[in-house]
Amino acid sequence: MTSATQNTRILLASRPDGEPTAENFRLETVPLPEPGEGEVLLRTIYLSLDPYMRGRMSAARSYAAPVEVGSVMEGGTVAEVVESRDPSLAVGDIVLAHLGWQSYGVAPAAHVRRLDPGSRADLDGRRRARHARVHRLRGSRRDRQAPGRRDRRGGGRCRPGGLGGGADRPHQGCSGGRHRRRS
Fold first, then answer.
1. Which tens digit of pLDDT belongs to each residue from 84-107?
2. Rounded CA separation 114/136 (Å)
3. Percent above pLDDT 70 for the chain
4. Can you tell me the distance from the alpha carbon of 60 to that of 47, in angstroms, rounded to the nearest whole number?
5. Minimal CA–CA distance to 15: which of 61, 66, 65?
6. Under a CB-based contact definition with an 8 Å cutoff, are residues 99 and 78 in contact?
7. Domain-by-domain residue ranges, the chain?
């Protein structure tokens, strides 16, 4: 059990009209929640603040459900297990959870993912998976390279046409002739 007895959380007080201001939020201190059977009490270590949250503050139709006025703001978290009522997670485990903007929260153990803080495998694996998904959807970067766009691999700018202007000449500025002019 943790020695803390209070939970600080930020609630959506009103829907923003334009950019969010401090008046759109309310800071609240409440007693710590008690985990039930199969749940864990988590202490937030890191909170992810993402652009999609702006859309969740609005009642307009969106791909994500809006946060209700008076509810804790949504947000992904990295948290430490401070009390466990589930055998799959122990006190001290570090997990990925969705607690929102609060110091502590309760979540079902089945809805959190244990992380290994000594390994970058979790982060690197997600990054590689996201990279692969993006490229499957968009096609390869080479196919999208627009004239005048920076060639990250070569460090120069790709400009259509070689020095002699022939169709078989590499674009100007590309290292090693990676890009060839298309006929």
1. 999 999 999 999 999 999 999 999
2. 28
3. 63
4. 25
5. 66
6. no
7. 6-115, 121-163
State the greatest distance between any 2 C-alpha atoms of the chain, in Å, as a whole number: 75
Other C-beta atoms lying within 10 Å of the C-beta of residue 90? 11
User: pLDDT averaged over the chain?
Assistant: 77
Structure tokens at 39: 């749940």
Amino acid at 5: T
In the block, residue with structure tokens 């039930």: 36
Task: Read off the pLDDT of each residue in 109-138 and give the average, rounded to a whole number.
Answer: 66
Fold held by 6-115: Quinone Oxidoreductase; Chain A, domain 1 (3.90.180)
What span, in angstroms and rounded, lies between the C-alpha atoms of 59 and 177?
Answer: 51
- Mean pLDDT over 76-90 rounds to 96
| Structural tokens at position 156 | 């120069």
DSSP helix/strand/coil, 143: helix
User: Which amino acid is it at 33?
Assistant: P
- Each as own residue / partner, the long-range contacts of residues 147-152 (CB below 8 Å, 24 or more positions apart, any chain) are 147/171, 151/175, 151/178, 151/179
